[in-house]
Amino acid sequence: MNKKGHSQLKLPIYFIDAFTENVFQGNPAAVVIVKENLTVASMQSIASENNLSETAYVNITASPYLIRWFTPTVEVDLCGHATLASARVLFDDYLPSDCSQVIFNSRKRGTLTAFKKGDLIYLDFPTDQPEEVEQNKVIVDGLGEKPVKTYRGEDDYLAVFGDEEIIRTMTPDFKMLSQLDSRGLIITAPGKEVDFVSRFFSPQSGVNEDPVTGSAYTLMIPYWHGILGKTKLAARQLSFRSGHVECELIEDRVLIGGKTARYLEGEILIQ
Q1: What is the pLDDT of residues 140-151, one digit of tens each?
Q2: What stretch of H or E contains 177?
Q3: Cβ contact 226:149 at 8 Å
Q4: Is 131-251 in the same CATH topology as 9-126+257-270?
Q5: Tens of pLDDT along 125-140?
Q6: What CATH number labels 131-251?
Q7: Cα–Cα distance between 251 and 222 in angstroms, integer?
Q8: Where are the domains of the chain?
Q9: Which residues contact 101 (CB under 8 A, 6 or more apart)?
Q10: What is the pLDDT of residues 204-257, one digit of tens each?
Q11: Which H/E stretch holds residue 197?
Q12: How far is it, in rounded angstroms, from Cα 115 to Cα 136?
């Protein structure tokens, strides 16, 4: 009860920087732990208030744990970095110290697994196979550069370029890219110090540029495996916060690995 006698719901919340070992780098995600289902309106309002690229809600009374993800404006079907952040919170605060695996159930993508290996957490996600498509005028105009090739996955477009520096210096027209009929647009190229580099733009989902996009690697890992012939790959996302991702292809699954850094923990108070 608060001072006015009204009941108050308190929800634990954590801010975790994913795919980095340092705060203020990688991709920040909010993780909200719930023991009963919230309304979609409440989840969207909290995500909007957090104003991070993703807020994950984990219902710890469900088995497996039910997970949902919201940007500041919409619910999305899958989010890698917020799942990585959720796994870190569960491993550190809610599971026995000898537990090395956590299983999530998602509404649209089924069962998702995260496990600890050394100081990294790996996500075990289904692959998203890229299919080559014709050059898209919105992509070309929105990027100001013509990709070598363009592909489409279940959620995103994948635009391939030949040089890392093109990816690093790209200055998109986000208003133009918001017209795309997809969750977002990945741009990628071979890396100089890693196997490949990328950036991710999603203005149509309320996030102009996502710092490190775990779910995008479900599409990029199969693509770069086909180009490089490697099942284990190292990647870097070249956003202003940057982030390092360890990748592995195992048949029709991908492992997406990264470190995390805890920035904040507290409580949400809802009347």
Answers
A1: 999 999 999 999
A2: helix 174-177
A3: no
A4: yes
A5: 999 999 999 999 999 9
A6: 3.10.310.10
A7: 10
A8: 9-126+257-270, 131-251
A9: 113, 114, 115, 116
A10: 888 899 999 999 999 999 999 999 999 999 999 999 999 999 999 999 999 999
A11: strand 196-202
A12: 38
Buried b (16+ CB within 10 A) or exposed e, 29-67: bbbbbbeeebeeebbbebbeebebbbbbbbbeeeeebbb
Residue 202 neighbours by CB under 8 Å, 6+ apart: 71, 183, 184, 185, 208, 209, 210
Fold of 9-126+257-270: Diaminopimelate Epimerase; Chain A, domain 1 (3.10.310)
Distance CA 70, CA 49 (A): 11
Catalytic positions are 54
Please give the Cα distance from 88 to 123 (Å, whole number): 11
Cα 228 from chain centre: 24
Query: What torsion do the CA atoms of 229, 150, 208, 178 make, to the nearest 10 degrees?
Result: -160
| Sign of the alpha-carbon torsion through 210, 215, 217, 222 | negative
DSSP designation for 26: S
CA–CA distance, 153 with 94 (Å, rounded to integer): 35
Tokens 């569960």 identify what position?
90
Written as six digits, the tokens of 3 are 């001072």
> Do the Cβ atoms of 210 and 200 come closer than 8 Å?
yes
